[in-house]
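Schema walk-through. Below, the input block comes first and the output block second. Nothing else is stored per chain. Lengths vary across the set, and this one has 249 residues.
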Amino acid sequence: MALLETHDLSKAFGALTAVNAVSLRVEAGTLHSIIGPNGAGKTTLFNLLTGTFPPSAGRIVFDGSDITGTPAHRIAHLGLARSFQRTNVFPAFSLLDNVWLAAFACSKSWRGLLWRRADRYPEATAQARAALADVGLGEKADQPAREISHGEQRQLELAIALAAAPRVLLLDEPAAGLSPEETRRMVALVRALKGRYTIVLIEHKMDIIMNVSDRISVMHFGSLIAEGTPEEIQRNAEVRRAYLGGVAA
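--- output ---
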């Protein structure tokens, strides 16, 4: 059963059509990857799914409900959370404070915020600590974010997404800029989350894509040109020629 769908979803910026009539089905509990060269429209598609941009045409359906045009501040409450290509954390805040903000922002009510100390929200604190533990940063909860490595900051951003208690995780190049060892650690994290969450992954590292994906969609100039299992994508001559090169040979 599809948990997240798009129907002829499009986004135009003037004369440029960044996403062109994309119809996508993401099955519940799967890891669905989206690949394509820079400029293919992958991140724009994520921006549409998360309400950053309104679509020019088409629909977005989440768990059977049409959420087209829902603003970004409501999307996380519906159960979609994302990471970004560039690390997006508060460097002066502790790891726990960074994640606590996400847990609190997606809690049921902000009532009483002006009259209660942050430590009076035990549910948000417990949720934040659990998210940090999930990504292997539990022991560094009180450390400022600026003092941890780039790889750990990427893990922290993943914890921030998890703290929102999402049903769908949208991960935009989580291994970008990581060393080989940091990449292995990130892949292990994504594998551990697979099955617990429905995951939509954008990634340029084809060895990662082929090893973790259940299904892969290929974008080119804003359009979907292929979709299938990793094996089917590897056998697709057009995809191999355009995107995979020697990795698929």
